[in-house]
Amino acid sequence: MPTKFTPLKYFGFASLAATFALMCVVRLWYTMFLLFGFALVMVLLHGKNTYCAHYCPLGTLQDAMGEKSPRVRPFPGVRLLKYLLIPLFWAAVIYTTVVFQRDGVRLWVWMLRIMVSMFFLAMVLQEWLGRRFFCVHLCPLRHPVLEPARRARNLAVKRR
Ligand code: SF4
């Protein structure tokens, strides 16, 4: 079934364009952190993962490219992959930020490499293992940050 593009999806395309402009034209090495901060604020405000549904540039790109992709398939090594990829991603981000903090060009180049790698990985996995496989199982923002923040926020609101 073709992916439905609701008007809200255009926020995703705007976010994709803004990410490209900030990272590739303006060359802001911390573009990814701006996105992560925005995602966290959205989750804390709404108590649900609005960012993933409507604003994430990588989610939008997967939806746009994945019209013909199959549904997510089970993959036996998924837990291992998750526990390798997420720490590796954060280690690369922290290492890059600390080590190249005084060298703006290399900092930008390495952040761009990390972002492009994640985009590339998500697209390949979607083709191979189904729609939004990366989001469902591997995303280093959603699983260790957004989901716990969402649960904590909703618990705190319930206890009030
Ligand atoms: S799971 Fe990750 S990549 Fe997917 S939409 Fe959410 S933040 Fe974006």
Overall description:
The chain has 160 residues and is mainly alpha-helical. The protein has one domain. It has 8 helices and no strands. It has helices spanning 9-25, 31-46, 50-55, 57-65, 78-99, 104-129, 133-138, 142-159. Helix 5 runs antiparallel to helix 6. It is globular, with a radius of gyration of 16 Å. The mean pLDDT is 94. It binds iron/sulfur cluster (SF4).
Strand and helix layout:
Elements: H1 9-25, H2 31-46, H3 50-55, H4 57-65, H5 78-99, H6 104-129, H7 133-138, H8 142-159
Bound molecules: iron/sulfur cluster (SF4).
Tally the beta strands.
0
Give a quick account of the main beta sheet: strands, pairing sense, barrel closure. Answer: none
Bound molecules: iron/sulfur cluster
Number of domains: 1
Rounded mean pLDDT score? 94
- Gyration radius, rounded: 16 Å
Descriptive labels:
160 residues; mainly alpha; 8 helices; 75% helix; 0% strand; globular; binds iron/sulfur cluster
Task: Please sum up the structure shown.
By secondary structure, the chain is an all-alpha fold. The protein has helices spanning 9-25, 31-46, 50-55, 57-65, 78-99, 104-129, 133-138, 142-159. The protein is built from eight helices and no strands.
